[in-house]
Write a structure and sequence with these properties.
Layout (H helix, E strand, L loop, with lengths): L11 H20 L10 H12 L9 H15 L5 H11 L1 H20 L6 E9 L2 E11 H72 L5 H36 L27 H8 L1 H22 L6 E10 L5 E8 L8 H66 L5 H37 L22
Antiparallel strand pairs: 1-2, 2-3, 3-4
Helix pairs in contact: 2-6, 3-4, 4-6, 5-6, 6-7, 6-9, 6-11, 8-10, 9-10, 10-11
Length: about 475
């Protein structure tokens, strides 16, 4: 900032006042320096997520911490992988989540920076005229920033809380996605095992038909039907194996494993259906109290309200500087004084900034209301999907599968009594294929629906189709 030197008469009272101002400023500088926390806000995220998942978190900020994580992951992968172990591995080992943890450190640094006093400015000038030498020294302080520091500090603190909520949301989303990917991969492996049995049976049937045709007991049409069944079984097995590889790789990515660790073992079958579904009469109230995206939307509204207050405060004067001046000359007594500089609102009265801040505030309020409305709808949708998936899986377990088993047993008895032939018996077995695959898919869909419901109660879910569940969308974060 440029300024003109003013001739000020020496004054003991003025000098004393400047000394007092300097002492006060020094005291504020010593007491106003913000400091970093011990964990960078990670502890709050860890507590929030552990209440909802029961899993451990670790922020790997050193090689030693990475080694600890790798050892824990190796222990969990050494045995058949359960869904809880899969979630624990993902929360420890997923590098994308570790990158989200680093956002805590970045934001805390910005909070600390907002709490630091602005550095003073120093100016030095030397002018000469004939034999006269004049030296000017000035020390300047940004008073506008100093006055706004408390409000800015509160704004940054709220933004830090928003970042904590977003990171916690990332943790919960990763846990839900891992559960869904686990059940999808497990169902795909179970389907592959079953389709291999179907293919072997079809192969035996086709070979028997070939031999019977050779001895004249089968015509070409009958053999072609058996061969067609075998060809379709081979095709279905190929598709099942591709789905198994694809779903397993998705689980691998979420777990953050590579190399030999990707050869982990999954159980042979999906978990059994629970005896009864969850009853959640107050599901909307629970969601409003627990959902992190709702809490984040409230924080965003508070943040923009603070921004609006700061904009209104500084609409006329947003540049204000105080300077201490000392001017010495070899032909005149030393001059001491002070100067103040500020921006004159001749062309820009700050109305546009205020209008923008007000519009952003109203936008954030509407977004917060939308988040709450959507949260209520999403949790109802998730619960409806959960109950429907449970009823379908139970119907397969209690009705369709037992009926097909009874039909198969009756056909075996009829075959033993020579009432039907081997091909009639095999034809009946083919009808079992669709029902068995449907039962596996129904059980898989139930466990995925439960993961969606659990996520809907604590954060924004991804209510996608079970055959290809998508990554959960990140809760809408407010800009700063």
């Amino acid at each position: 900032m440029s300024h003109d030197i003013q001739d000020l008469a020496p004054s003991r009272r003025g000098a004393r006042g400047l000394r007092v101002l300097a002492l006060v400023t020094s005291a504020v500088m010593l007491g106003g320096c913000a400091s970093f926390s011990a964990d960078g806000g990670f502890g709050a995220v860890e507590r929030t997520t552990k209440e909802r998942t029961g899993k451990d978190l670790q922020w790997a900020r050193s090689d030693a911490e990475l080694d600890t994580i790798h050892k824990r992951v190796a222990e969990l992968l050494a045995k058949p992988l359960t869904v809880d172990d899969a979630v624990q591995i993902a929360l420890l080992n997923n590098r994308g989540l570790q990158a989200d943890f680093s956002e805590l450190g970045i934001t805390e640094a910005e909070v600390v920076q907002a709490g630091r006093l602005p550095n003073p400015g120093f100016s030095f000038g030397r002018m000469s005229q004939g034999d006269e030498r004049e030296i000017e020294r000035g020390l300047h302080f940004n008073l506008a920033r100093l006055v706004a520091m408390p409000l800015v500090g509160r704004m940054e603190a709220r933004r830090f809380e928003q970042v904590k909520a977003r990171v916690a949301m990332s943790v919960l989303s990763l846990a839900a996605d891992t559960r869904k990917a686990y059940f999808t991969a497990l169902a795909a492996e179970e389907t592959v095992r079953y389709m291999r049995q179907v293919k072997e049976a079809a192969d035996a049937s086709a070979e028997l038909a070939r031999r019977m045709e050779q001895v004249g007991n089968f015509n070409k049409l009958q053999r072609a039907r058996e061969q067609s069944f075998y060809a379709n079984a081979v095709l279905q097995l190929a598709r099942a194996e591709q789905a198994q590889r694809s779903t397993r790789e998705r689980l691998v990515r979420l777990l953050g494993v590579w190399g030999p660790q990707t050869q982990f073992t999954l159980p042979e079958r999906l978990p059994d259906l629970p005896a009864s579904p969850k009853e959640l009469p107050d599901i909307e109230q629970v969601a409003m109290a627990q959902r992190l995206d709702v809490q984040s939307a409230k924080l965003a509204a508070e943040q923009t309200a603070s921004n609006l207050g700061l904009t209104r405060t500084t609409r006329f004067v947003n540049v204000l500087e105080l300077g201490l001046v000392r001017n010495s000359s070899n032909e005149a007594p030393t001059q001491r004084g002070w100067e103040i500089g500020f921006e004159l609102p001749l062309f820009d009265w700050g109305g546009a900034r205020v209008a923008r801040a007000e519009a952003v505030y109203m936008q954030t309020l509407h977004r917060a209301a939308e988040t709450a409305i959507n949260a209520r709808s999403e949790v109802r949708e998730a619960y409806t999907g959960y109950r429907t998936a449970y009823d379908i899986a139970r119907h397969h377990r209690d009705e369709i599968v037992p009926l097909n088993q009874r039909i198969a047993e009756e056909n075996v008895l009829r075959y033993n009594g020579m009432l039907i032939g081997v091909f009639e018996l095999l034809a009946d077995a083919r009808t079992q294929i669709a029902s068995v695959n449907a039962a596996i898919e129904a059980l898989r869909d139930f466990w995925i629906a439960q993961a969606d419901l659990d996520m809907a109660l604590i954060g924004k879910p991804s209510l996608a189709a079970a055959a290809g569940p998508a990554m959960a969308a990140e809760a809408a974060g407010a800009g700063h």
